UniProtKB/TrEMBL annotation:
Residues 7-77 form the Insertion element IS402-like domain. Pfam families: DUF4096. Coiled coil: none annotated. InterPro entries: IS402-like_dom, Transposase_6_like. This is Transposase.
């Protein structure tokens, strides 16, 4: 069984109205690329560490960069949040936090307690 993430048919149908129109040359498979973008971001990977099943890492990065700058991902989030509800402000945060392994040890230094 694979640990890769794949968007379902239902998810793709909900997302499709928010995709920009393709001009000229057809886009690479949207499901494969978007699933790869979700996988990379969800697992905190570098683009070049994306599994080959999602296609070239450069394709994933280019789509993420272009669609991010064009506001496509913002429109997707706003559109999905508005389905069945009144419009609300939606905020997306791409903060990535990492704690060092020694951060969990609560040592008392110089007579100062953690109370």
């Amino acid at each position: 069984m694979s640990d890769l993430f794949w968007l379902t048919d239902e998810q793709m149908e909900r997302l499709r109205p928010f995709f920009p129109k393709s001009h000229g040359k057809p886009r690479v498979d949207d499901r494969r690329v978007l699933s790869g973008i979700v996988f990379v971001n969800r697992n905190g990977l570098r683009w070049r560490d994306a599994p080959g099943a999602y296609g070239p890492h450069k394709t994933l990065y280019n789509r993420w960069k272009r669609w991010g700058e064009a506001g496509v991902f913002t429109r997707i989030m706003e559109g999905l949040a508005a389905v069945g509800a009144e419009p609300k402000t939606v905020m997306s945060d791409a903060t990535y936090l990492k704690a060092h392994r020694t951060a969990s040890s609560l040592r008392v230094k110089r007579g100062i307690s953690a109370a």
